[in-house]
Request: fold
Amino acid sequence: MASEINVRKASFRDAAAITAFVNRARSGKPLDRMSVAERFGQVSFLIAEQDGEMVGLLAWQIENLVIRVIDFLIAPGADAVAVGRALCEQMEAQGEELQAEAAVLYLPEDPSPNLLAYWELFGYRRQEIADLYRAWREAVAEWNPEATEAVMKILRADRVQRPL
Reply:
């Protein structure tokens, strides 16, 4: 039986551990600790841990009541669905506290059917950009001005109509 997955907000003290995790989990040019430390000024990091080991990482930001999932990484060999669900649930709960209306994924162009099916497990769906509210369209346009679709999840049935 797998042990519980715990998700917590990362702090600046986690920069070295995040750097090591990213470098172990992905190939390509190694990431340096300074790059991770600088990202703390741009995004919030959530860390998923199991048995004291980091098994997942999610970086997100919120602007104009729209959550943007910037980075998402799960350790090879980890239960991708369980870790992904735990990370998403925590991010969405924090977003609710901030009155977020929707969460948008920044996926590669032409995502694979497997990638889309994975995110559908958590309630994320393809949406036509033209059908979105203006603030949501703007969030997508910052990522890809040419995009005609976005993968997103609506987090609240009612929209925030006035400033909080």
